Give the backbone structure.
Amino acid sequence: MAPCPAGDAEVRGFGVRKRRVKERMDDRTRQRQPLLDTLVGYMEARYEHLRALLERADTAGGGEVITLDGRAYERLWSRVDERRIRLGGKENVRVLDQTSGKHVNVAAAEDAAFFEWAIVEVLRHTGIRIEEALELTHLSVRQYQRPNGEIIALLVIAPSKSDRERVIPMSAELFSIAAAIIRRHTQDGRAIPLLPRYDPHERQASPAMPYLFQREIGTNQDVISPATVVNMLRRRCEELAERHPGFLTTCFTPHDFRRLFATELVNNGLPIHIGAALLGHLNLETTRGYVAVFNEDVVHHYQEFIGRRRNSRPSDEYRDVTEQEWSEFEEHFDKRKVGLGGCTRPYGTPCRHEHSCLRCPMLAINPKMLPRLDEIEEDLLARRARAERESWLGEVEGIDLTLALLRQKREETNRLARIAPVNLGIPSIQPTPATRRVRST
DNA sequence: TATTCATCTCCTGGGATAGG
DNA sequence: CCTATCCCAGGAGATGAATA
């Protein structure tokens, strides 16, 4: 098609309309940003509540009333349950929620709540598109070894919009979520079931793969569909609206987490081209479009970044990430060294759990840290013996506490190592320039 | 602007349950 | 054991946003 001449009536007003659309999306993100923590907290609390309820209702007899977090539930028992047991199965754990008067299948509700929590966590920690999230498989969780021997967990995102796969380093939180999903699927010692997934865009089913977001609905094992996630988020936001007025007019969609992720990254000082690599954008303008929410901040960061780069390489603005920049990004991990090993939280994000390294999930999952734990234990035992000789009672108590945590950590590490991809025969990868660089066109 | 893709919405079907 | 009903996930078309 021939290009339209400037001033053509057909394109007049197009720029204005684009700006209005952009303003609407920015406003959407601004509205949701302060609500994110509430939503995340609610999802987590809801899962914890149902998990505890399942634990207690499972052992309760029919008619027994269970009180949990101020809510009363009556354990139900029906003829169907007896029939299921007679047929060699297990009864459904159902309760009557005495507050709402509704029947709840606790086992199903707990399972749903787990995956609801997990998908929200994955979306907000990775900023990936909903389809990419649902396409994550066991094989997407990889590791690669830095030249210094350190292992970094990576998430391989299959392409959905562009045709290039991308690899993003996993934060401690993200890895613990992935491990929780894998652990849930493999808790009875079986591998993650291989399932085909229907792709609504391609209109065809994929080959059978160990999808992470799959669950049992009735007798069917199915991969969770995008519509399910949308509906789930709407239901949860509606529930929250009863207590939190902010949710009365605001509902989250999966894509909102992506906008929030992009905004947070850039506001935390991550160079925009690395942000683009993490988000899988081919064009920096796209990333800028996502994050130009807090305008002054972003413009400031962006100008500063462009300015620095102009000084060193005046004529080459939209270039690939250089080896040096990428190493700098990687070296950031080295700056996060703590007593017991390495903390691989994302670039530019502060740790909210200061002095809690022993309980940090990232520290537990790296089996390479085990010999180091042994060394530390020896050291602690020696210090304890001395403290005891000198009758420093407070010190002995403190060391005992640390020792207990350390042993718990070791046990956890061994347990996780059995299910973590590290030991599942998944090959390590060295990312090639093709998989780790920003492409600017 | 053209094209691709995300989201919404409505319909269908299957599982769970209660009651006969 | 059968059937009615409810609930919810999945499928697919429609609509509009995102992207190149």
About this structure: The longest strand of chain A covers residues 151-157.
